[in-house]
Automatic annotation (TrEMBL):
Belongs to the short-chain dehydrogenases/reductases (SDR) family. The keyword Oxidoreductase applies. It comes from the Eukaryota. The gene is LOC116188272. Gene3D superfamilies: NAD(P)-binding Rossmann-like Domain. This is Secoisolariciresinol dehydrogenase-like. One of its GO terms (molecular function) is oxidoreductase activity. Keywords: Lipid metabolism, NAD, Oxidoreductase. One of its GO terms (biological process) is lipid metabolic process. SUPFAM superfamilies: NAD(P)-binding Rossmann-fold domains.
């Protein structure tokens, strides 16, 4: 391939790095994580996964009752702080609460989000609802990145994660407002990664396929009134591209664990799609 100009490959190149082989478990030992929207669904599953891997987690959620319950259920390594991500002061306070409790912030997961039913025609689009979705799904994520960076930059380290969605890649009129908010999350991650990278901070997002969490069930019940929860779960699972399995919160928690850990120490600006091949399937036109 290189003719007479073959590169001299250092002897260390390809050597096994024992740091990553010798500790296959508890990859977040001693790390401090803040997860928004962790009172239920993907955020709660990720909080449990992070704790099982040695992290201490602060759950930030607008739902005080569920958030407190989740913290109690997850045990002494979980704490709850009330936070509405559409309010910058709440996000700033959640970051400061984490630092005051644990001394620093290593992992910020901007996961909180809401769904949005979009009318069949753009002519009927509710722009007040549009503003609310953007305030949580986009502004809330930007606020999370801003305030996590504020405390991570002086430490010259950190991992920021955000939850996007497959519809942020595929788009679609059926979910115009929501899709746009999630495309924006993918865009923010790409845009912020060069600057944060210069401070040793990685930023990535995850795009899940549909999972029947509270957010999705509420939305689908709105669409399919009277159909019943089990039928809706069947519709969601039936839409997947991978036979014999379906997307669950734990699949996203596993992706988040990887991206948050040192195993992904050279991964930044990336959108990790967890969809069983759905977006490829769709782009091929099947
Ligand atoms: P969920 O309803 O179980 O969890 C969402 C959490 O966010 C809830 O605990 C809710 O109280 C919280 N929340 C809502 N508004 C908030 C606000 N203003 N401030 C703070 N917290 C707020 O749903 P989920 O599916 O686990 O959703 C988590 C994320 O995953 C969302 O960003 C969602 O858009 C995204 N997502 C979900 C799916 C899916 O199919 N479930 C697919 C792709 C992306």
């Amino acid at each position: 391939l290189f003719g007479n100009n073959a590169p001299v490959i250092p002897r260390t190149c390809g050597a096994i790095d024992r740091r990553f082989c010798s500790r296959p478990e508890r990859t977040l030992e001693g790390k401090i994580a803040l997860i928004t929207g962790a009172a239920s669904g993907i955020g709660k599953a990720t909080a449990a996964k992070f704790i099982a891997n040695g992290a201490k987690v602060v759950i930030a959620d607008v739902n005080h009752e569920l958030g407190q319950e989740a913290a109690e259920e997850l045990g002494p390594d979980a704490r709850f702080t009330p936070c509405d991500v559409s309010k910058e002061l709440d996000v700033s306070n959640a970051v400061d609460f984490t630092v005051s409790q644990h001394g620093r912030l290593d992992i910020m997961f901007n996961n909180a989000g809401i769904a949005c039913t979009t009318p069949a025609s753009i002519v009927d689009l509710d722009l007040d609802r549009f503003d609310r979705v953007m305030a949580i799904n986009v502004r809330g994520v930007v606020a999370g990145i801003k305030h996590a960076s504020r405390v991570m930059i002086p430490n010259r380290a950190g991992s920021i994660l955000c939850t996007a969605s497959v519809v942020g890649i595929l788009g679609g009129m059926a979910q115009l407002t929501y899709s746009l908010s999630k495309s924006s999350v993918i865009g923010i991650v790409r845009s912020a990664s060069p600057e944060l990278g210069r401070h040793g901070i990685r930023i990535n997002c995850i795009s899940p396929f549909a999972i029947p969490t509270r957010l999705v069930m509420d939305e689908m019940n709105h669409h399919y009134t009277g159909v019943g929860n089990q039928r809706i779960v069947d519709i969601i699972h039936g839409a997947g591209a991978l036979e014999g399995t379906s997307c669950e919160p734990i699949d996203i928690a596993n992706a988040a664990l990887y991206l948050a850990s040192d195993g992904a120490k050279y991964v930044s600006g990336h959108n990790l799609v967890v969809d069983g091949g759905f977006t490829v399937f769709k782009s091929l036109g099947f």
